[in-house]
Amino acid sequence: MTDNKDDKTLGVKKTLTLKPSGVSQGTVRQDMGRGRTKAVVVETRKRRPIRPEDDKPAFTAPTPRAAEPAAPAPRPQQPNPPATRVHQPTQAQRPAAPAPQQRQGERPRGAVLHDLSASEMDARRRALVEAQAREVIEAKQRAEDEARRQAEEERRRLQEAEEAARRAAEPAPVEVPVEEAPAPAATPAPAERAADARPGISRTQPAAPAQPVIGRGRKAGNEEDDDRGPPRGAPVRGRVAAPAPAKAPARPKTEDERRRGKLTVTTVSTDDDGGNARGRSMAAMRRRQEKFRRSQMQEPREKVMREVTLPETITIQELSQRMSERAVDVIKFLMKEGQMMKPGDVIDADLAELIAVEFGHTVKRVSESDVEEGIFDVVDDEGELEPRPPVVTIMGHVDHGKTSLLDAIRQANVVAGEAGGITQHIGAYQVEQNGQKITFIDTPGHAAFTAMRARGAQATDIAILVVAADDSVMPQTIESINHAKAAGVPIIVAINKIDKPTANAQKVRTELLQHEVFVESMGGEVLDVEVSAKNKTNLDKLLEAILLQAEILDLKANPNRTAEGTVIEAQLDRGRGAVATVLVQKGTLKPGQILVAGDQWGRVRALVTDKGEHVKEAGPAMPVEVLGLSGTPAAGDRFAVVDSESRAREISEYRQRLARDKAAARQSGSRGSLEQMMSQLQSSGLKEFPLLIKGDVQGSIEAIAGALEKLGTDEVRVRIVHSGAGAITESDISLAEASNAAIIGFNVRANAQARAASERSGIEIRYYNIIYDLVDDVKAAMSGLLSPERRETFLGNAEILEVFNITKIGKVAGCRVTEGKVERGAGVRLLRDNVVIHEGKLKTLKRFKDEVAEVPVGQECGMAFENYEDIRAGDVIECFRVEHITRTL
Ligand SMILES: Nc1nc2c(ncn2[C@@H]2O[C@H](COP(=O)(O)OP(=O)(O)OP(=O)(O)O)[C@@H](O)[C@H]2O)c(=O)[nH]1
Questions:
Q1: How far is the CA of 462 from the centre of ligand 1 (A)?
Q2: Pfam families under this entry (predicted)?
């Protein structure tokens, strides 16, 4: 059926399709079997020009054109057909071959044509021409669409199947020897002609696989030859099929091939992307997208220029924040400059300015002390001032009766409660006389407290100089006079112990003259009162003298403003945290306010008076305990209320830096443990050795510092590089390391990081709980008489998780060993907030029900102390071993 139709068409087309060249192309539909068909674009190249003699018409055509394609194409010889390289042979092509034979039999039709008139013939011809032209165009269009669709499908399939699909596709080409249609005379159907127009495909395609085997250049050359060389109709099948298809994509196309745009499944699948993109995988696509995204992200943001306020020192983090830059960028910049730093590192203003300018900002350098501006020494209007109680400090030589006198006044017996009779803690309290309040600051009289006394004098309005009538003026009496005079504080002389038979008040007055203290009875203005603390004699007179003096001083303050004052003492209280005894000097302090005290800050949690009462406010000249600070400030530090936490933090950070700088400034070049320093003292004649003292309360530290200072001679003395209340921290170790100081812990312990740091740096930490032991040790060392060393080895720490009350045994701590190990028989200490609560021995060490010799880290155990039961969950049990080693220098 199809054949007949073709025949008919061919017969007509023969007269219409004379093409100038030997190349034509089109699409043919191929039967794929099982009802599937596929359109394939083919190209047919005719090698030999059509010779006129071949076009012998079978019948006489009325038009010249009819004569052209008449020659029946001799069927091409089988060995030499020009191969139409098509992936699948087209069925449509095959019928083309027998066409000439069939045309032979059409002669009768031609005879009929002769009977038609010329006009009829022309009309028919035109109609045919037009019909065919339409058909050709439509067929071409369909063929192109189909080819595109097929190509797209194929490409997609091939991409998915990658190499495997390609391999399957490449070797498959079926070489269809296309009959050498002798001329346009063959006049194939339009679709066929389109397909025939691409015969070259078949010839070039096979060349590709062969190439990698021998050599690209030579092979390519051969192919070129083959393309042109073989006689018309010569089959190229052998060359086509042979090559390894896997290598095909690697073969570069020849220029000729590109120009011709030959189409194979492979080229169809690749050419859409220009051929090169064929191998691009999804991963590559994703990488490309990712790269693009990154490049987008890395685009510089729009810069916002800022004026960055720079203090003298600043952390990188803070600087970054002020510049609104990322700290990591600042660190990167510093890395480029060869400096490895962390966000928390402190840099000086010069470097900070360099960085800020580099990041495109301007800087405004300020003095660090600016942060305190407007906080302290705020001047009040005269009209706002109200009378306030006087603040009195009692000063004098040791044992002249200062505490006794204060006790007598306060009607409380503090002396009896003091360890060794020495006042170690400074207190402050208020008493009332005739309805008027007087604030007393209890500065201990021991020589060790010299420094504290000096500070106390600054906070006070009136100094009571206690001089024992039986002892008269002594060195510390003179020192006290000097401090009071330096502070511009008026003195009231209390001549104590007048009850004693050896008392000589007049001698005291006379001797005071030598130190420019002129009492009233000697023609001066200094009030003097003869008292007996023991018998409470003339205490009223003393208080009246104080009030009289206060009246002369006309003491006033504005209670209606933010509070400001001085820290009298501070300590780390077990359970209450940091507790600071402060003296409010201006304004009124209230709970909830934010306080900066020294280098510490905090929100006031509670205010407690000297009598233990919680109060809602503390006005001028009122001493009060403040709870809620982040740490313990130093005695003598000034405090003030600020409006925000950030301000408080800023000020406290500034003050911490200031303290660090001061400490660093004090550091010396010497280095070593206590023994090393002592040996250095002896061998090199070193004049001083540095110590860092940490204690449980400020008072103890002052006592230790004073005692150690007192040991000093013209040749050698102790230099305290730093002292403070609280646990020994890593920063203490680094300071000790920098200044080569030994560390003394008085009733405190080093935390884990500090211990590790001390081991690393070889800084010795000595623990004491009795001042005299400490002083004796240092004294012995200073005089070169070293007793056997008591070396303590830290074994481990265990945290108390729970406390059990067991009948007959008592309290047992359920613990987990958090560090090292715990040994039975070793020494143990109970630590609460790193402060030693108890030191002793273990009564029991159990794992489950069994008594064990030791418990390693990570395990849980039960522990109970000998003769001690005040244990709480959260406490830490420190386990240590003690060795006594004879010292050798
Ligand atoms: N006879 C007599 N003895 C007194 C009097 N006042 C104090 N004492 C004694 O003097 C000794 C020292 O008294 P303290 O009050 O501790 O003297 P202090 O100046 O506070 O001493 P430190 O705290 O060590 O600086 C004690 O033994 C008191 O009993 C007094 O008025 N008469």
A1: 21
A2: EF-G_D2 (PF22042), GTP_EFTU (PF00009), GTP_EFTU_D2 (PF03144), IF-2 (PF11987), IF2_assoc (PF08364), IF2_N (PF04760)
